[in-house]
Amino acid sequence: MPVTVVIGSQWGDEGKGKVVDLLSPEVDIVARYQGGANAGHTICWDDKEFVLHLIPSGIFHDGVSCVIGNGVVIDPVALMDEIEMIRDLGYRVEGRLLISHNAHLIMPYHKRIEEARERAMDAGAIGTTGRGIGPAYVDKFARTGVRVVDLLDRDVLKEKLTRSIEEKNAVLESVYGAEKLDVDAIIDEYVEFDKLIDPFVTDTTEFLCTALSDGKRILAEGAQGSLLDIDFGTYPFVTSSHPTVGGCCTGLGIPPTHIDRTIGIVKAYSTRVGNGPFATELKDDTGEALRRVGLEFGATTGRPRRCGWLDLVALRYTTRINGFTDIAIMKLDVLSDLEEIKVCTAYEFAGKQNIRFPNDLQTLENVKPIYDTFPGWKANITGVTAMEDLPEEARSYIAMIESYLGIPARIVSTGPKRSQTILR
Ligand code: GDP
Ligand code: IMO
Ligand code: MG
């Protein structure tokens, strides 16, 4: 069966972009299934580094088709900027990038509502990326959203936008005391997208299902991470989509029976951007060192990422809900300087030690992480490409994670570049 899904196992930024780029030569199609330009997927080779927000991370491989599925929410302005960037780099986009006609659009009012809501929530704010993701998914589920296909019919677009903006203006003004948006200016701007986007728009589900019948291989690229999933994450501090494996089926129209590999992308420690519970967070010099060595600053917003030890309780949970067949352990090189490395193997709550990840916020915010301590390897492993060239302590660290989760690490990453990888 020919579908592999790449899924963030933590709170995003695990290194999904690197893994998708790395595996792209083995497939015919790379497809994004959820999220939007809140994602920032970094790809590095030689001395080049690029960050993609909407376009799938297979785009730098000429033989690969790239699909933006129906489950993604698309900001047309961000999309066109990214298409331009790829073209300027000399890569062909026409005929290779396919955009679902059913995908919903992010409009300026979504960003404005999000900004007003976050400001009003003050200390309880989620700390979103400000890309309008939540409000766009709200409209999708309220059945009042604007879709890619609507961009292709100016009359329909005008009617839908007028209705939506009038409603949003009422909310902005009366609920948040915020400035209203200019209906005509938005319509004038967005009617111009029809010719720009038309060459890329298609029925991507038909395309993918035909590809599967023809024996083609698909790599589905998740954005964000499982702990940011709207159902399974640390609600309400989550995103508004399904980064977990089910999102691949609903966000692309691929039946689950075609999926034969789900790779959990695991950073060798933990990071989180934005607010919400984070049991193993380090607010000390070690956390600062992880941020400095790992360059832990958001690829989309530039915000410093919160850093902490690896959390196996959380990873066991995301391994179970996604059915990971294997994992990729990323950024192992970042741990190189540490004297000792801690790993959370249980949470203490309700008066006892548990390996179950609790679902309610109250408990999550108050669990006490129980750590096992491992010796560091104190050797620079950047760029190592074979297991036997890793220090014994680093190999033990990998084996310990595999044993706890009961699945193999088929990829170990020792640097940001494609070449800095151990494939097992
Ligand atoms: P994504 O959102 O999951 O694609 O991850 P991001 O691109 O947001 O963040 C991962 C960061 O780590 C990027 O800057 C990558 O270039 C970098 N990276 C990926 N793998 C490694 C690795 O093994 N070692 C180091 N040092 N950096 C890595
Ligand atoms: P990639 O794909 C890390 C976080 C935000 C915030 C929460 C909700 O690069 O791993 P949103 O804008 O989605 O409504 O914000 O989710 N978040 C991410 N954190 N990596 C991402 O994507 C993220 N996308 C959203 O910081 O806490
Ligand atoms: Mg990222």
What can be said about this structure in brief?
With 424 residues, the protein is an alpha/beta fold.
Q: What fold name stands as the CATH topology of the largest domain? A: Adenylosuccinate Synthetase, Chain A, domain 3
Number of strands: 20
> What is the topology, as strand order, of the major beta sheet?
9-7-5-2-10-1-11-15-19-20
Give the % helix.
25-40%
The helix tally amounts to 14
CATH architecture level-2 label of the largest domain: Alpha-Beta Complex
Query: How much of the polypeptide forms β-strand, as a percent range?
Result: 15-25%
What is the total domain count? 3
- Uncertain regions: pLDDT < 50 for 5+ in a row? none
Structural class: alpha/beta
Shape: globular
The N- to C-terminal Cα distance equals 21 Å
CATH class of the largest domain: Alpha Beta
Task: Report on this structure.
The protein is of the alpha/beta class and 424 residues long. It has three domains: 3-100 and 208-263, 3-Layer(aba) Sandwich (Adenylosuccinate Synthetase, Chain A, domain 1), CATH 3.40.440.10; 104-197, Adenylosuccinate Synthetase, subunit A, domain 2, CATH 1.10.300; 266-423, Adenylosuccinate Synthetase, Chain A, domain 3 (Alpha-Beta Complex), CATH 3.90.170.10. It contains 14 helices and 20 strands. The protein has helices at 16-23, 76-88, 108-121, 133-141, 148-151, 154-174, 183-190, 193-197, 204-213, 245-252, 285-293, 312-322, 361-366, 392-405; strands at residues 3-8, 29-32, 41-45, 48-52, 65-68, 73-74, 97-100, 104-105, 201-202, 218-221, 259-267, 270-272, 306-308, 310-311, 326-330, 340-349, 352-354, 368-375, 409-413, 421-423. Helix 3 packs across helix 4 (133-141). It binds guanosine-5'-diphosphate (GDP), 6-O-phosphoryl inosine monophosphate and magnesium ion.
